[in-house]
Structures are given as C-alpha cells and as structure tokens.
Amino acid sequence: MKLPTKVTIKEVGPRDGLQNESKFIDTKDKIEWINRLSKTGLSYIEVSSFVHPKWIPQLADSEEVLKSIQKKPGVTYAALVPNIRGLERALNCQVDEISVFMSASEGHNKQNINKTIDETFPVLKEVVDEAKKANVKVRGYVSTVIACPYDGLVAPKQVLKVADRLFDMGVYEVSLGDTIGVGVPTQVESLLETLLKHFPPNLLAMHFHDTRGTALANVLKSLEMGITTFDSSTGGLGGCPYAKGASGNVATEDLNYMLSAMHIETGINPEALIDSAFFMEEKIGKILISKQMEIARNERSGNLDNARTV
Amino acid sequence: MKLPTKVTIKEVGPRDGLQNESKFIDTKDKIEWINRLSKTGLSYIEVSSFVHPKWIPQLADSEEVLKSIQKKPGVTYAALVPNIRGLERALNCQVDEISVFMSASEGHNKQNINKTIDETFPVLKEVVDEAKKANVKVRGYVSTVIACPYDGLVAPKQVLKVADRLFDMGVYEVSLGDTIGVGVPTQVESLLETLLKHFPPNLLAMHFHDTRGTALANVLKSLEMGITTFDSSTGGLGGCPYAKGASGNVATEDLNYMLSAMHIETGINPEALIDSAFFMEEKIGKILISKQMEIARNERSGNLDNARTV
C-alpha cells in the first residue's frame, strides 16, 4: 500500500466542535484552549465562526477569541465566514484565513444556508473576491458529500460540480465533508475517483464525522488515493447537543495515533494534544469520547490494557 | 478496490466480551442473550469458556449456559477450551466446536497460560487430537499478533510460526488477534503479506480490539487482502473492567454497518442485533460504547443527526 509520508491535520474543534455542543464555553476558556492547541504542533486551527450569533450562539464571541489568542508563528488561524458581513467582522480581527461553506445537496444547503445551491454561489463569490483583495486565503467546505439527511445519497458528480465552482471562484482547497458521518470506504473511493480526475489530491481535504465509526477507515482509503489533508476535532467534539457521547468530528488524537503509527508525519505532540483535550473536557463538563482519552484515563487510574485475554 | 462479496462475522461477545467485564452476568441473562443473538442471522457464536473458574469467574457457568441455550439450526455454538479437562467439560455439553488459544509472544503467553510457547503446543495438540476423535472442529486463536504488552512489537514471522504449528495440529482456521488493540493498517498489511504466502485467506480470521479506534480501518485493509472472517462482540463488550467506556472487541453492529454499507453480505439483521446489544447493556448495567447503539439512543430520544453543521 502506498501512503503519503506527511499529512496536514486541520484542527476544527474550536469551530465545528464547539458549534455543535449545547453549552456555551467561556470566552477565556476558548482562548486558553486555542493557546494550548497552538503548542501541540498543529499548523492550522479553525478558531471560530462569523455566522450570525442568532444561528450559532455558542460562537457569538468570535471577535474576542480571534483578537485575544496568542498567535504562534507558523500556525494558521482561520475562521468560518458565511457572507460579506461575516467577512468584514473576520477581517477586522486580523484573521489569517477564512473558510466559506455550502452543501453538495439542495436539501441540506437550504436547511443550513436558506438558499438553493445556485443562489449560494454569488454570495460566496462576493466573499472570496473581497477576501482576495485583503490578501486573505479562502478555503471551501462542501458538506454532505456522501449523503444528505434530507435528500439521501449524493452523487459524486454533484460534489464535483460544487467543488469545481468553488475552485473557479479562487478557493485554494476544498474540504469534502461527510457531514452526517454515514460514509464507508467504497463511497469515499467513488467520490475521490470522480474528483481526482479533475483536481490533484493536494487541493482536496477530507472532513469526516465519526458518527458510525468509519472515519478512520475512510481516512485510510483517502490516504491510499493520495489525500494529505484531514480535518478533525480534539476530543472528537461536535456531537449532537442532546445526546451524551454522540459522535462529532473524528478525534484529532485518534487520527494522529493512526497516522503516526503508520509512520506518517503530522508534526503533532500526542501528549500535548491529549492534555488540551482534557482541558476542554473539564470546561465542557461532559466525558469526551475519544479512544486516546480513554487510554489516558486508564493509565492515569493505574489500569493497563486488558492483557489477560485472547 | 476489490472486496469480498460475503463475510462471516463470528460473535465472541458472550465469551471474549463477558470475560473482560467485572460484573458476573446472571446465567439466565446470558442464556437469553445468546438466544437473542441466535435470531439475528449470526451463523457463529462463541458462547463461553471452559477455562478454570478460578481464572475467569465471570464464565464459571459455561456448562449451564451451553446446555440451556436454544440452539438454532445453522448456527455454530462454540466455546473456548484451554486444556484436556476443559475439553471434557465442553464435550459433555454437546459443544458444536471449540477454540484453543495461545499467543505469538512469549511474554503474553507466559502471563496468560503460564507456559512458554513451546510448552503450549503439546497441551493444545492433546486437545485437538481428542476433539477430532469426538468429531468436533477446532479453531485456533493466536493472540498479540501485532504487539505484546510485555514484549513490544511482534514480528509477522513469529505469528507465522505459531499459526503454522496450529494448522499442523489440525485446526481448521486461525484467528489472528490484535489483543491490545494497537494495530494500524500498515501492520496488518505486513502481517497478512507474510501469512498469505503460506495460507489461503479463507483459513484466516481477524480479531481486532478497538482500543485505539483503528479496528475498522484494519478490517478494511484485511478485506482488501482477501480476508472474509472477522470476530467481534455485540455492544463492543470486553473493555478493561475498571474503566468506563474502555474498548473491547470491535462492536459487531459497527462492523456489520460498514460491511453492509459496502454491499458485503453478512446475513445479519441490524435491528435484531442492536436490540440484543441493548438487552445486554441493561443486564450489565453500564453504557456500552458502540456507534450504532449511540445512534439508536439518539433516534429513540427524538434527536436526529446534527444536520446544521459543515
């Protein structure tokens, strides 16, 4: 099996993770968490969202967060931006980079953005144009690339169409999101086969939610197909707000374990990463579900792996 | 990617799962659970162990369990057997099939069986010989095929040596266990490359513990290499007894989800499987950690997947 020697992990916990948690985390704790994440070796952190606080009250403090974090040289601090108003707010905080987002399926796009896919492009184009004028790079997210909670399975050709328009606008990378975490490796393969006919693998990132436990298998398939950028959340944050233990993004520390154990370089210090996960666990006040955190809990309590077993 | 069209899942929850749980489950509940598992479409259930109750008190009722379950035609009911005394007890209960076990590493073998690897072979040979006389098939487990908690990494050649001896004795299949759940797909590939030079893939099964979340990625790699038999536990049972949520075997329902979504036939009814997992969760009195159970909990409580997200 041919695998890349180096992978970039883009940490989206402070944005995708926290926006899906019911609890509002104190601004000072968000700042401290991002400062800790900055010291793990991560090179990219999506720190917040400039979606209107009416929609995502959990991230209503995005300005203060972005202005107050200690930026470490070499780390990109990005934020999600839905429209020109959001961009203005983000630029006002000296954001390094922004992300725009839309869905590959009409149903989810309508629900999430309240526009059809065709109506969404001009809104994003305006954002991308203005960001470029400000010399700020733009990343594009495409949601529901495997399936949509409203429309069912999504055809790879539909994802291609949306990704193509985003690249035309000038985004430097498209992150392909299995938003509801239903995908399996055969679907990832079909999707990437379609997209890699048109774009080189270094322009694509994969964004897996681990709702059904298939995220790392999907990462493996993506790696085999040449993908070298993956999104994840420390502590696997981002579950359904009302369900204990529901899965959000694939956990950064679990992704990092698999990659490192396969001798793929990520640049991340696993101990620092776990410590930052426990920091947020304490602030969020619920048990975070990642395998590496579980192992750390066992080690701290003096339990070893179950050695007496087949 | 070339995948098999059909896979056999061997359910080891009543044995490998329950032996690693601290709580003794009432015999009548074990029986009821196995009866429910029998109705899911599973074709193979390892129902208990005839290891001396001094070592595994959780399964001290193996005779009563095996004698009292309602055997469904077409389902194989197997039990783990450590030695000739255990075999006698198992045969006395009309077991369909037995499993013998040893480790690929000296450290774990010594700890688990209190013998060196070379000292173990004659003990198992005696069991296999007697089982064959009774027309009972024997499956062989090899533990610590990737790494050992005492000896560190285990060389594929060492696994090959042990598997080869087991086949020589007359086992019909060898199940390769990543006992401590550290393995990643590159290691699975190295291991299988070595073994598949000597044995066809239909003689090998993979037995992954999901301690680090890599089990399904390892399953994917095994499938790509032609493996068609996998062990798993309903509810992901079998964690470290003192640590809430610690991972045991890969959960049958999560394995079955990935396989089914990839259009690989397993013959298993997912709803019946989940129901049997919730039955055992109630009896065991702790939250079982599998993704499919989490989804079912959300659906039952009226929560949908987090649709408003990137």
UniProtKB/TrEMBL annotation, chains A, B:
<dbReference type="GO" id="GO:0004419">
    <property type="term" value="F:hydroxymethylglutaryl-CoA lyase activity"/>
</dbReference>
<dbReference type="GO" id="GO:0046872">
    <property type="term" value="F:metal ion binding"/>
</dbReference>
<comment type="similarity">
    <text>Belongs to the HMG-CoA lyase family.</text>
</comment>
<protein>
    <submittedName>
        <fullName>Hydroxymethylglutaryl-CoA lyase</fullName>
    </submittedName>
</protein>
<keyword id="KW-0456">Lyase</keyword>
<dbReference type="Pfam" id="PF00682">
    <property type="entry name" value="HMGL-like"/>
</dbReference>
<dbReference type="GO" id="GO:0046951">
    <property type="term" value="P:ketone body biosynthetic process"/>
</dbReference>
<dbReference type="GO" id="GO:0006552">
    <property type="term" value="P:L-leucine catabolic process"/>
</dbReference>
<dbReference type="InterPro" id="IPR043594">
    <property type="entry name" value="HMGL"/>
</dbReference>
<dbReference type="InterPro" id="IPR000891">
    <property type="entry name" value="PYR_CT"/>
</dbReference>
<keyword id="KW-0479">Metal-binding</keyword>
<feature type="domain" description="Pyruvate carboxyltransferase">
    <location>
        <begin position="7"/>
        <end position="274"/>
    </location>
</feature>
<dbReference type="InterPro" id="IPR013785">
    <property type="entry name" value="Aldolase_TIM"/>
</dbReference>
